[in-house]
Specification:
The chain is an alpha/beta fold and about 210 residues long. It has a single domain, classed as 3-Layer(aba) Sandwich (Rossmann fold), CATH 3.40.50. The protein is built from 6 helices and 8 strands, in the order αβαβαββαβααβββ. A hairpin with a 3-residue loop joins β6 and β7. The protein is globular and about 40 Å long.
């Protein structure tokens, strides 16, 4: 499922990067010279494309085995990516031009503290891109009762009550001193599969920045 989701996230990310820094939309390396932090990097599924876009990428994950697998894969692919294991608040990381945090917030117990930690690591002119499932009847039926039941997502991956609505996320960002920018849904249909949409009811992806 993550492999199917990744191209959708990357399309949003590329557009967001181009809009935020007003860069050359034709270049293959829009992140050249910029530092990137991928929070909840897993095995590097998003971190590697970000490195190929020119970013100096750091990936962190709470699970040491994930960071180890990601580092081995990056080395085998000839990519210079720094991977670290640990919790965001416990690592000495510095600040970054771009922070990505995809499908992580719903697994975090203290969401206000987590968003604040993201904000602390964002440079004044930086860009945060975050995705998370919406807490709706549709997401419960499709992502929890449906996808987990048929094995598309491992059982126990999601707890629907921990999903965050767009309004709740706006409040979390605001309380952390950030302002939300772009927002799009990640929808699913039998004909299109996973795709960007104005429908936020299943999953959604947003940008945020420090106010000017």
């Amino acid at each position: 499922m993550l492999h199917r989701l990744n191209p959708v996230r990357l399309k949003f990310l590329r557009d967001a990067i181009d809009m935020h820094w007003a860069g050359d939309i034709e270049t293959r390396r829009p992140l050249a010279g910029r530092t990137v932090l991928d929070v909840g990097c897993g095995a590097g599924l998003l971190a590697e494309p970000l490195a190929r876009l020119g970013g100096k990428v750091t990936g962190i994950d709470a699970a040491p085995e994930n960071a180890k697998v990601a580092a081995l894969h990056a080395e085998g692919s000839g990519l210079d990516i720094r991977y670290m294991a640990g919790e965001l608040g416990a690592l000495d990381l510095g600040t970054f031009d771009l922070i990505t945090c995809m499908e992580v917030l719903e697994h975090v117990a203290d969401k206000p503290a987590f968003i604040s930690q993201l904000a602390l690591r964002l440079k004044p002119d930086g860009l945060l891109v975050l995705s998370t499932p919406n807490r709706t009847t549709r997401s419960r039926i499709l992502m929890v009762e449906g996808a987990e039941a048929i094995g598309m997502i491992p059982r126990g991956t999601h707890h629907w009550e921990d999903f965050v609505t767009p309004d709740e996320l706006d409040d979390l960002l605001s309380d952390a001193g950030l302002v939300r920018g772009q927002q799009q849904g990640v929808a699913f249909s039998p004909t299109k599969g996973l795709h960007l949409s104005d429908d936020l009811s299943l999953d959604y992806i947003v940008t945020a920045r420090v106010p000017a």
